[in-house]
Amino acid sequence: MSKVTTREGVDPQAKIDELRKLANTDYFDVMLMHYQHVATWPTDTARWQDGILEAKAKKALLGHGASVHGLPALRQFPGNKWLEIAMIRVNHKGTKMDAEDFNTGGPGNVSEVVTHVKQVHKDGMGVISMKLVGEGAFTTREDRQAALRFAFNNAGVDSVTIGYKSSAEIDEAIENLNLALA
Question: How much is the pTM?
Fold first, then answer.
């Protein structure tokens, strides 16, 4: 999986080819449009959406979607026919999650985010949770376990992405994941 930043003046095909070369791969399972943070993203990124579909037709990509930051952008995910995969910030505390301001320093709106997760899931999209442990803000194992349980059991995500600083954190995350899915 990889992401592309949807900048003007960048050729989507050239960027996807560059990423494939850097990763030394013929294709990506998933390509996400990174950091969609305004309500107008579906029209603003039309050129990128077309470019991703073109790369998919060439078998350079298998699946596609977007990562979202902020409620105005997230509200455009349900019902979006282009999206196959939605990467959404989800955790039980709202830490580093979506609010009206995409770059809020305060808590996100957990209930609205969960509502949208469930809506896009009903639409047939896969949902990946990001910011699961609040960008490392959850300092206790109990909080990290609660975050995983919440993401899978309450929000209903399909998968999660977690950053690590050590192999011990990877081992803990695997244990926490197994507990959440038990």
Answer: 0.94
